[in-house]
Write a structure and sequence with these properties.
This protein has 491 residues and is an alpha/beta fold. The strands form 4 sheets. The protein has an 8-stranded mixed beta sheet with strand order 4-11-10-9-8-5-6-7, with helices on both faces. Helix 14 packs parallel to helix 16. The radius of gyration is 26 Å and the shape is globular. The protein starts with 29 loop residues before the first helix and ends in a 6-residue tail after the last helix. 44% of the residues are buried. Bound molecules: pyridoxal-5'-phosphate.
Protein backbone atom coordinates (compact mmCIF):
# COMPACT_ATOMS: atom_id res chain seq x y z
CA UNK A 1 0.00 0.00 0.00
CA UNK A 2 2.93 2.25 -0.65
CA UNK A 3 0.75 4.46 -2.85
CA UNK A 4 -1.98 4.93 -0.23
CA UNK A 5 -2.48 8.58 0.54
CA UNK A 6 -1.20 9.70 3.89
CA UNK A 7 -4.03 11.37 5.81
CA UNK A 8 -2.71 11.86 9.31
CA UNK A 9 0.33 13.98 8.88
CA UNK A 10 0.83 14.90 12.49
CA UNK A 11 -2.35 16.92 13.01
CA UNK A 12 -4.41 14.25 14.64
CA UNK A 13 -5.81 16.44 17.43
CA UNK A 14 -7.72 18.62 14.97
CA UNK A 15 -10.02 18.00 12.05
CA UNK A 16 -8.02 18.16 8.86
CA UNK A 17 -9.98 20.99 7.33
CA UNK A 18 -11.52 22.88 10.28
CA UNK A 19 -14.31 23.45 7.76
CA UNK A 20 -12.39 26.41 6.41
CA UNK A 21 -11.97 26.57 2.67
CA UNK A 22 -9.56 29.20 1.45
CA UNK A 23 -9.49 27.95 -2.12
CA UNK A 24 -11.92 30.60 -3.32
CA UNK A 25 -10.24 33.41 -1.39
CA UNK A 26 -8.16 35.95 -3.27
CA UNK A 27 -4.46 35.59 -2.41
CA UNK A 28 -4.40 39.01 -0.78
CA UNK A 29 -7.58 38.41 1.20
CA UNK A 30 -6.54 35.16 2.87
CA UNK A 31 -6.29 36.58 6.37
CA UNK A 32 -9.67 38.34 6.21
CA UNK A 33 -11.31 35.23 4.78
CA UNK A 34 -9.85 33.04 7.51
CA UNK A 35 -10.86 35.53 10.20
CA UNK A 36 -14.39 35.70 8.92
CA UNK A 37 -14.69 31.94 8.63
CA UNK A 38 -13.53 31.50 12.22
CA UNK A 39 -15.86 34.22 13.48
CA UNK A 40 -18.80 32.66 11.63
CA UNK A 41 -18.03 29.28 13.13
CA UNK A 42 -17.87 30.77 16.60
CA UNK A 43 -21.21 32.54 16.15
CA UNK A 44 -22.73 29.39 14.71
CA UNK A 45 -21.45 27.41 17.72
CA UNK A 46 -19.31 25.14 15.55
CA UNK A 47 -16.22 26.23 17.42
CA UNK A 48 -17.16 25.70 21.02
CA UNK A 49 -16.45 28.09 23.85
CA UNK A 50 -13.20 27.12 25.55
CA UNK A 51 -12.24 24.80 22.69
CA UNK A 52 -8.69 24.80 21.32
CA UNK A 53 -7.71 26.01 17.87
CA UNK A 54 -4.98 24.25 15.97
CA UNK A 55 -1.48 25.65 16.46
CA UNK A 56 -0.86 28.30 13.81
CA UNK A 57 1.88 26.22 12.17
CA UNK A 58 -0.41 23.20 11.84
CA UNK A 59 -3.35 25.15 10.47
CA UNK A 60 -1.14 27.04 8.03
CA UNK A 61 0.24 23.75 6.72
CA UNK A 62 -3.26 22.30 6.34
CA UNK A 63 -4.60 25.32 4.58
CA UNK A 64 -1.53 25.74 2.43
CA UNK A 65 -0.95 29.34 3.52
CA UNK A 66 1.98 31.02 5.17
CA UNK A 67 2.07 30.85 8.94
CA UNK A 68 1.86 34.64 9.22
CA UNK A 69 -1.67 34.55 7.72
CA UNK A 70 -2.87 32.38 10.60
CA UNK A 71 -0.84 34.23 13.24
CA UNK A 72 -2.34 37.56 12.18
CA UNK A 73 -5.87 36.18 11.91
CA UNK A 74 -5.59 34.73 15.43
CA UNK A 75 -4.13 38.00 16.74
CA UNK A 76 -7.01 40.04 15.32
CA UNK A 77 -9.58 37.66 16.76
CA UNK A 78 -7.86 37.88 20.13
CA UNK A 79 -8.02 41.68 19.91
CA UNK A 80 -11.73 41.47 18.98
CA UNK A 81 -12.46 39.29 21.99
CA UNK A 82 -13.24 36.06 20.12
CA UNK A 83 -10.10 34.13 21.06
CA UNK A 84 -7.68 34.03 23.92
CA UNK A 85 -4.02 33.08 23.75
CA UNK A 86 -2.18 31.90 26.83
CA UNK A 87 1.40 30.81 27.16
CA UNK A 88 1.47 27.04 27.33
CA UNK A 89 -2.26 26.70 26.60
CA UNK A 90 -2.36 27.65 22.93
CA UNK A 91 -5.21 29.58 21.37
CA UNK A 92 -8.77 28.94 22.48
CA UNK A 93 -12.25 30.26 21.82
CA UNK A 94 -13.23 32.64 24.60
CA UNK A 95 -16.07 31.56 26.84
CA UNK A 96 -18.12 34.66 25.96
CA UNK A 97 -17.14 34.76 22.28
CA UNK A 98 -20.59 33.94 20.87
CA UNK A 99 -22.10 36.85 22.74
CA UNK A 100 -19.88 39.28 20.88
CA UNK A 101 -22.04 41.87 19.20
CA UNK A 102 -21.67 41.78 15.46
CA UNK A 103 -19.84 45.10 15.88
CA UNK A 104 -16.77 43.80 14.19
CA UNK A 105 -18.65 41.84 11.59
CA UNK A 106 -18.26 42.43 7.93
CA UNK A 107 -21.07 43.33 5.58
CA UNK A 108 -21.47 39.70 4.48
CA UNK A 109 -22.03 38.50 8.00
CA UNK A 110 -24.48 41.27 8.71
CA UNK A 111 -26.36 40.40 5.56
CA UNK A 112 -26.66 36.89 6.84
CA UNK A 113 -28.55 38.26 9.86
CA UNK A 114 -30.97 40.12 7.64
CA UNK A 115 -31.29 37.70 4.75
CA UNK A 116 -34.76 36.45 3.92
CA UNK A 117 -34.75 33.07 5.63
CA UNK A 118 -33.09 34.04 8.87
CA UNK A 119 -36.03 34.10 11.24
CA UNK A 120 -34.78 31.26 13.39
CA UNK A 121 -31.18 32.46 13.33
CA UNK A 122 -32.34 35.91 14.34
CA UNK A 123 -34.08 34.49 17.35
CA UNK A 124 -31.02 32.46 18.29
CA UNK A 125 -28.45 35.17 17.61
CA UNK A 126 -26.85 36.26 20.85
CA UNK A 127 -26.85 39.94 20.20
CA UNK A 128 -27.15 42.28 23.19
CA UNK A 129 -30.21 44.19 22.00
CA UNK A 130 -33.08 42.89 19.92
CA UNK A 131 -36.21 44.72 18.92
CA UNK A 132 -37.58 41.75 17.02
CA UNK A 133 -41.33 41.34 16.67
CA UNK A 134 -43.59 39.21 18.76
CA UNK A 135 -41.65 37.50 21.52
CA UNK A 136 -42.92 37.10 25.08
CA UNK A 137 -40.60 37.82 27.99
CA UNK A 138 -38.92 34.56 29.06
CA UNK A 139 -38.54 36.02 32.55
CA UNK A 140 -42.35 36.00 32.87
CA UNK A 141 -42.66 32.28 32.22
CA UNK A 142 -44.41 30.91 35.35
CA UNK A 143 -41.64 28.50 36.29
CA UNK A 144 -42.91 27.61 39.75
CA UNK A 145 -46.47 26.91 38.58
CA UNK A 146 -45.23 24.98 35.59
CA UNK A 147 -42.91 22.90 37.76
CA UNK A 148 -45.81 22.11 40.11
CA UNK A 149 -48.06 20.92 37.31
CA UNK A 150 -45.28 19.06 35.57
CA UNK A 151 -44.38 17.19 38.76
CA UNK A 152 -48.03 16.40 39.39
CA UNK A 153 -48.45 15.21 35.80
CA UNK A 154 -45.51 12.87 36.17
CA UNK A 155 -46.84 11.54 39.44
CA UNK A 156 -50.32 10.94 38.02
CA UNK A 157 -49.45 9.41 34.69
CA UNK A 158 -49.68 5.63 34.64
CA UNK A 159 -46.74 3.77 33.09
CA UNK A 160 -48.84 2.78 30.09
CA UNK A 161 -49.07 6.44 29.06
CA UNK A 162 -45.33 6.95 29.09
CA UNK A 163 -44.91 5.79 25.55
CA UNK A 164 -45.68 6.96 22.01
CA UNK A 165 -48.62 9.33 22.27
CA UNK A 166 -51.93 9.46 20.46
CA UNK A 167 -50.83 11.58 17.46
CA UNK A 168 -53.88 13.79 17.95
CA UNK A 169 -52.72 14.68 21.46
CA UNK A 170 -53.79 13.50 24.90
CA UNK A 171 -57.50 13.30 25.50
CA UNK A 172 -57.09 15.33 28.70
CA UNK A 173 -55.38 18.26 26.98
CA UNK A 174 -57.78 18.26 24.05
CA UNK A 175 -60.66 18.36 26.50
CA UNK A 176 -59.06 21.15 28.54
CA UNK A 177 -58.31 23.15 25.38
CA UNK A 178 -61.78 22.61 23.95
CA UNK A 179 -63.33 23.95 27.15
CA UNK A 180 -60.93 26.86 27.31
CA UNK A 181 -61.18 27.88 23.64
CA UNK A 182 -64.95 27.62 23.70
CA UNK A 183 -65.16 29.85 26.76
CA UNK A 184 -62.51 32.41 25.87
CA UNK A 185 -62.50 32.49 22.05
CA UNK A 186 -65.96 31.23 21.15
CA UNK A 187 -64.42 28.31 19.25
CA UNK A 188 -66.91 25.55 18.49
CA UNK A 189 -65.00 22.34 19.11
CA UNK A 190 -65.08 18.85 20.51
CA UNK A 191 -61.85 17.10 21.44
CA UNK A 192 -62.25 14.77 18.44
CA UNK A 193 -61.81 17.61 15.99
CA UNK A 194 -58.64 18.90 17.58
CA UNK A 195 -55.01 17.96 16.94
CA UNK A 196 -52.32 19.05 19.37
CA UNK A 197 -49.40 20.40 17.36
CA UNK A 198 -45.96 21.67 18.18
CA UNK A 199 -47.09 25.25 17.51
CA UNK A 200 -49.06 27.20 14.93
CA UNK A 201 -46.35 26.77 12.32
CA UNK A 202 -46.37 23.01 12.46
CA UNK A 203 -50.16 23.17 12.32
CA UNK A 204 -50.04 25.28 9.17
CA UNK A 205 -47.55 22.95 7.51
CA UNK A 206 -49.69 19.92 8.33
CA UNK A 207 -52.84 21.64 7.08
CA UNK A 208 -51.13 22.64 3.82
CA UNK A 209 -49.88 19.14 3.22
CA UNK A 210 -53.27 17.65 3.96
CA UNK A 211 -54.96 20.13 1.60
CA UNK A 212 -52.39 19.57 -1.14
CA UNK A 213 -52.95 15.84 -0.81
CA UNK A 214 -56.67 16.45 -1.19
CA UNK A 215 -56.16 18.31 -4.47
CA UNK A 216 -55.94 21.96 -3.35
CA UNK A 217 -53.64 24.17 -5.43
CA UNK A 218 -53.73 27.77 -4.27
CA UNK A 219 -54.03 29.42 -0.87
CA UNK A 220 -54.55 33.15 -0.41
CA UNK A 221 -52.40 34.90 2.19
CA UNK A 222 -52.34 38.38 3.61
CA UNK A 223 -50.00 40.85 1.92
CA UNK A 224 -48.02 41.43 4.06
CA UNK A 225 -48.18 38.27 6.18
CA UNK A 226 -45.97 36.39 8.60
CA UNK A 227 -43.32 35.28 6.10
CA UNK A 228 -43.24 31.63 7.23
CA UNK A 229 -46.94 31.39 6.23
CA UNK A 230 -46.00 31.80 2.59
CA UNK A 231 -43.04 29.47 2.92
CA UNK A 232 -45.12 26.72 4.52
CA UNK A 233 -47.65 26.96 1.70
CA UNK A 234 -45.10 26.82 -1.08
CA UNK A 235 -43.11 24.08 0.66
CA UNK A 236 -46.25 21.95 0.60
CA UNK A 237 -46.37 22.39 -3.18
CA UNK A 238 -49.20 24.95 -3.08
CA UNK A 239 -49.18 28.45 -4.49
CA UNK A 240 -49.51 31.34 -2.03
CA UNK A 241 -51.63 34.14 -3.49
CA UNK A 242 -51.05 37.51 -1.82
CA UNK A 243 -54.13 39.62 -1.11
CA UNK A 244 -53.69 43.14 0.30
CA UNK A 245 -54.30 44.04 3.93
CA UNK A 246 -55.44 47.60 4.68
CA UNK A 247 -56.60 49.37 7.83
CA UNK A 248 -59.67 47.07 7.95
CA UNK A 249 -57.71 43.86 7.56
CA UNK A 250 -57.73 41.55 4.56
CA UNK A 251 -59.37 43.08 1.48
CA UNK A 252 -62.11 40.52 0.99
CA UNK A 253 -63.30 42.09 -2.27
CA UNK A 254 -59.81 41.62 -3.70
CA UNK A 255 -59.80 38.05 -2.40
CA UNK A 256 -62.94 37.43 -4.46
CA UNK A 257 -60.98 38.08 -7.64
CA UNK A 258 -58.79 35.02 -7.11
CA UNK A 259 -59.46 31.39 -7.66
CA UNK A 260 -58.14 29.88 -4.42
CA UNK A 261 -59.04 26.87 -2.31
CA UNK A 262 -58.50 28.57 1.05
CA UNK A 263 -57.32 31.76 2.70
CA UNK A 264 -54.85 31.91 5.57
CA UNK A 265 -55.19 35.01 7.73
CA UNK A 266 -54.71 36.53 11.19
CA UNK A 267 -58.11 38.16 11.77
CA UNK A 268 -57.81 39.05 15.47
CA UNK A 269 -54.49 40.87 15.06
CA UNK A 270 -52.90 40.84 11.63
CA UNK A 271 -49.19 40.17 11.46
CA UNK A 272 -47.24 42.35 10.91
CA UNK A 273 -49.50 45.38 10.46
CA UNK A 274 -51.48 44.80 13.66
CA UNK A 275 -55.02 45.53 12.45
CA UNK A 276 -58.18 43.62 13.33
CA UNK A 277 -60.45 42.35 10.57
CA UNK A 278 -63.43 44.75 10.48
CA UNK A 279 -66.86 43.33 11.24
CA UNK A 280 -68.16 43.97 7.72
CA UNK A 281 -65.13 42.14 6.31
CA UNK A 282 -65.72 39.21 8.65
CA UNK A 283 -69.24 38.87 7.29
CA UNK A 284 -67.97 39.22 3.73
CA UNK A 285 -65.31 36.58 4.35
CA UNK A 286 -67.81 34.12 5.73
CA UNK A 287 -70.03 34.65 2.66
CA UNK A 288 -67.02 34.25 0.40
CA UNK A 289 -66.11 30.91 2.02
CA UNK A 290 -69.69 29.63 1.71
CA UNK A 291 -70.19 30.84 -1.86
CA UNK A 292 -66.86 29.51 -3.05
CA UNK A 293 -66.94 26.32 -1.05
CA UNK A 294 -63.55 27.44 0.29
CA UNK A 295 -61.78 27.15 3.63
CA UNK A 296 -60.70 29.80 6.10
CA UNK A 297 -57.44 29.06 7.91
CA UNK A 298 -57.47 31.24 11.02
CA UNK A 299 -54.13 31.89 12.73
CA UNK A 300 -55.18 33.10 16.19
CA UNK A 301 -51.58 33.37 17.40
CA UNK A 302 -51.80 36.19 19.97
CA UNK A 303 -55.49 36.83 20.53
CA UNK A 304 -55.32 36.48 24.31
CA UNK A 305 -53.19 39.60 24.48
CA UNK A 306 -55.65 42.39 23.88
CA UNK A 307 -55.21 45.46 26.07
CA UNK A 308 -58.01 47.91 25.40
CA UNK A 309 -61.07 45.69 25.24
CA UNK A 310 -62.18 42.09 25.23
CA UNK A 311 -60.85 40.41 22.08
CA UNK A 312 -63.32 39.75 19.32
CA UNK A 313 -64.30 36.08 19.16
CA UNK A 314 -62.66 33.71 16.72
CA UNK A 315 -64.03 33.59 13.20
CA UNK A 316 -64.19 29.84 13.62
CA UNK A 317 -67.16 30.31 15.96
CA UNK A 318 -69.16 31.76 13.06
CA UNK A 319 -68.30 29.14 10.42
CA UNK A 320 -66.86 26.08 12.18
CA UNK A 321 -67.66 23.84 9.22
CA UNK A 322 -65.40 25.93 6.93
CA UNK A 323 -62.67 27.07 9.31
CA UNK A 324 -59.38 25.54 10.35
CA UNK A 325 -58.44 27.25 13.58
CA UNK A 326 -54.87 27.43 14.94
CA UNK A 327 -53.36 28.71 18.16
CA UNK A 328 -50.49 28.03 20.52
CA UNK A 329 -48.88 28.95 23.81
CA UNK A 330 -45.98 30.67 22.04
CA UNK A 331 -47.13 34.20 22.88
CA UNK A 332 -49.08 33.55 26.04
CA UNK A 333 -46.52 31.33 27.82
CA UNK A 334 -43.42 30.59 25.79
CA UNK A 335 -42.40 29.50 22.30
CA UNK A 336 -39.80 27.24 23.94
CA UNK A 337 -42.29 24.46 24.68
CA UNK A 338 -43.58 24.09 21.10
CA UNK A 339 -47.20 23.34 21.89
CA UNK A 340 -50.22 24.45 19.91
CA UNK A 341 -53.53 23.23 18.52
CA UNK A 342 -55.45 22.88 15.30
CA UNK A 343 -59.23 22.64 15.23
CA UNK A 344 -60.58 21.24 11.97
CA UNK A 345 -63.92 20.54 10.33
CA UNK A 346 -64.82 16.89 10.90
CA UNK A 347 -64.09 15.75 7.34
CA UNK A 348 -60.46 16.93 7.57
CA UNK A 349 -59.62 15.28 10.89
CA UNK A 350 -58.29 11.98 9.51
CA UNK A 351 -56.07 13.72 6.92
CA UNK A 352 -54.59 16.01 9.53
CA UNK A 353 -54.05 13.19 11.99
CA UNK A 354 -52.20 11.28 9.28
CA UNK A 355 -49.92 14.25 8.59
CA UNK A 356 -49.20 14.78 12.27
CA UNK A 357 -48.40 11.13 12.70
CA UNK A 358 -46.05 11.16 9.72
CA UNK A 359 -44.40 14.34 10.88
CA UNK A 360 -43.40 13.43 14.43
CA UNK A 361 -45.73 10.70 15.75
CA UNK A 362 -47.24 13.12 18.25
CA UNK A 363 -46.19 15.82 20.68
CA UNK A 364 -44.62 15.29 24.09
CA UNK A 365 -47.13 13.56 26.37
CA UNK A 366 -45.72 14.79 29.66
CA UNK A 367 -45.80 18.44 28.58
CA UNK A 368 -49.34 17.97 27.32
CA UNK A 369 -50.45 16.63 30.68
CA UNK A 370 -48.82 19.55 32.47
CA UNK A 371 -50.44 22.08 30.13
CA UNK A 372 -53.83 20.44 30.60
CA UNK A 373 -53.44 20.80 34.35
CA UNK A 374 -52.32 24.42 34.01
CA UNK A 375 -55.47 25.18 32.01
CA UNK A 376 -57.88 23.25 34.22
CA UNK A 377 -56.50 24.71 37.45
CA UNK A 378 -57.04 28.30 36.31
CA UNK A 379 -53.31 28.98 36.55
CA UNK A 380 -53.11 29.68 32.81
CA UNK A 381 -55.81 32.35 33.10
CA UNK A 382 -54.10 33.78 36.21
CA UNK A 383 -50.82 33.97 34.31
CA UNK A 384 -52.52 35.72 31.41
CA UNK A 385 -54.14 38.28 33.68
CA UNK A 386 -50.72 39.06 35.11
CA UNK A 387 -48.75 39.32 31.87
CA UNK A 388 -51.48 41.24 30.07
CA UNK A 389 -50.97 44.15 32.48
CA UNK A 390 -47.22 44.03 32.06
CA UNK A 391 -47.35 43.88 28.27
CA UNK A 392 -49.94 46.65 28.14
CA UNK A 393 -47.59 48.89 30.12
CA UNK A 394 -44.67 47.93 27.91
CA UNK A 395 -46.69 48.71 24.82
CA UNK A 396 -47.70 52.11 26.17
CA UNK A 397 -44.08 52.83 27.07
CA UNK A 398 -42.90 51.62 23.66
CA UNK A 399 -45.34 53.92 21.87
CA UNK A 400 -44.24 56.84 24.05
CA UNK A 401 -40.57 56.06 23.38
CA UNK A 402 -41.16 55.81 19.63
CA UNK A 403 -43.05 59.13 19.61
CA UNK A 404 -40.26 60.73 21.61
CA UNK A 405 -37.14 59.24 20.03
CA UNK A 406 -38.31 58.34 16.55
CA UNK A 407 -40.86 61.05 15.73
CA UNK A 408 -40.57 60.33 12.01
CA UNK A 409 -42.12 56.87 12.59
CA UNK A 410 -45.88 56.34 12.26
CA UNK A 411 -47.15 53.51 14.44
CA UNK A 412 -50.26 51.62 13.43
CA UNK A 413 -52.24 48.70 14.74
CA UNK A 414 -54.47 47.72 17.63
CA UNK A 415 -53.58 47.68 21.31
CA UNK A 416 -52.75 44.00 21.24
CA UNK A 417 -50.03 41.39 21.00
CA UNK A 418 -46.30 41.84 21.41
CA UNK A 419 -45.31 43.90 18.39
CA UNK A 420 -46.00 47.22 16.75
CA UNK A 421 -45.61 48.11 13.11
CA UNK A 422 -44.01 51.46 12.45
CA UNK A 423 -43.64 52.98 9.01
CA UNK A 424 -40.76 55.34 8.30
CA UNK A 425 -40.40 58.16 5.78
CA UNK A 426 -40.31 56.95 2.17
CA UNK A 427 -36.64 57.92 1.86
CA UNK A 428 -35.55 55.48 4.60
CA UNK A 429 -33.37 52.55 3.56
CA UNK A 430 -34.42 50.03 6.21
CA UNK A 431 -31.92 47.41 5.09
CA UNK A 432 -29.02 49.82 5.47
CA UNK A 433 -30.49 50.92 8.78
CA UNK A 434 -30.56 47.30 9.92
CA UNK A 435 -26.92 46.78 8.97
CA UNK A 436 -25.82 49.98 10.69
CA UNK A 437 -27.85 49.12 13.79
CA UNK A 438 -26.33 45.62 13.84
CA UNK A 439 -22.90 47.18 13.82
CA UNK A 440 -23.97 48.88 17.07
CA UNK A 441 -25.18 45.59 18.53
CA UNK A 442 -28.89 46.09 17.84
CA UNK A 443 -31.09 43.78 15.78
CA UNK A 444 -34.22 45.19 14.20
CA UNK A 445 -36.84 43.50 12.03
CA UNK A 446 -37.26 44.92 8.55
CA UNK A 447 -40.97 44.56 7.75
CA UNK A 448 -40.19 44.15 4.03
CA UNK A 449 -39.36 40.46 4.55
CA UNK A 450 -43.03 39.81 5.31
CA UNK A 451 -44.15 41.04 1.91
CA UNK A 452 -44.43 38.73 -1.08
CA UNK A 453 -43.58 41.81 -3.13
CA UNK A 454 -41.16 43.76 -0.94
CA UNK A 455 -40.93 46.45 -3.62
CA UNK A 456 -44.50 47.44 -2.66
CA UNK A 457 -43.66 47.74 1.02
CA UNK A 458 -43.41 51.14 2.64
CA UNK A 459 -40.22 51.30 4.73
CA UNK A 460 -41.26 49.87 8.09
CA UNK A 461 -39.98 48.13 11.18
CA UNK A 462 -41.74 45.52 13.30
CA UNK A 463 -40.86 46.42 16.87
CA UNK A 464 -41.09 43.74 19.54
CA UNK A 465 -41.65 45.31 22.94
CA UNK A 466 -42.75 42.31 24.95
CA UNK A 467 -39.51 40.59 25.78
CA UNK A 468 -37.65 43.39 27.47
CA UNK A 469 -37.97 46.07 30.11
CA UNK A 470 -39.11 49.56 29.21
CA UNK A 471 -35.61 50.85 29.97
CA UNK A 472 -33.90 48.45 27.60
CA UNK A 473 -36.44 49.15 24.85
CA UNK A 474 -35.73 52.83 25.29
CA UNK A 475 -31.98 52.23 25.22
CA UNK A 476 -32.26 50.26 22.00
CA UNK A 477 -34.45 52.91 20.44
CA UNK A 478 -31.96 55.61 21.36
CA UNK A 479 -29.31 53.77 19.39
CA UNK A 480 -31.67 53.30 16.47
CA UNK A 481 -32.52 57.01 16.47
CA UNK A 482 -28.80 57.86 16.42
CA UNK A 483 -28.20 55.48 13.54
CA UNK A 484 -31.18 56.86 11.66
CA UNK A 485 -30.14 60.46 12.11
CA UNK A 486 -26.72 59.59 10.69
CA UNK A 487 -28.16 57.87 7.64
CA UNK A 488 -28.16 59.65 4.34
CA UNK A 489 -31.58 59.60 2.67
CA UNK A 490 -32.04 56.94 -0.01
CA UNK A 491 -31.68 58.36 -3.49
C1 LIG B 1 -48.59 35.40 12.81
C2 LIG B 1 -47.81 34.32 13.47
N1 LIG B 1 -48.22 33.05 13.35
C3 LIG B 1 -47.53 32.04 13.92
C4 LIG B 1 -46.38 32.27 14.63
C5 LIG B 1 -45.61 31.12 15.18
O1 LIG B 1 -46.33 30.48 16.13
P1 LIG B 1 -45.82 29.13 16.80
O2 LIG B 1 -44.67 29.48 17.68
O3 LIG B 1 -47.01 28.69 17.58
O4 LIG B 1 -45.45 28.17 15.74
C6 LIG B 1 -45.93 33.56 14.80
C7 LIG B 1 -44.70 33.82 15.55
O5 LIG B 1 -44.20 34.89 15.67
C8 LIG B 1 -46.65 34.61 14.21
O6 LIG B 1 -46.24 35.87 14.31
Amino acid sequence: VASAKQTNTGVSAFPADLLVDLNQAPRRGLRQTLERALRDQIHAGLLTAGGPLPPSRTLAAELGVSRSVVVHAYANLVADGYLQARQGDGTRVRADARARPPAGIGADDARAFFGPARHASLLRARVPMRLLGGLPDPALFPRARWARHYRAALAEMPDREITYPDPRGTQALRLALSTYLGRVRGVVVEPDRMIVSSGVMQGISLVCRALAHGGARRIAVEEPCFRPHRLAISTAGLQPVPVPVDSQGLDVAALGEHDVDAVLLTPAHSFPTGVTLALSRRHALVSWARDRDALIIEDDYDSELRYDRAPIGALQGTVPERTIYLGSISKSLTPAMRLGWVVVPAHLTPALERQKSLDDMGSSVIEQHALGRLLDSGDYARHLRRVRLIYRNRRDAALAAIADLLPQAAVQGEAAGLHVYATLPASTDVQALGLAAAARGLLIEDAAQHWARPQNAAPAIVFGYGSQSQASFQGALTILAQVLSGQAPRT
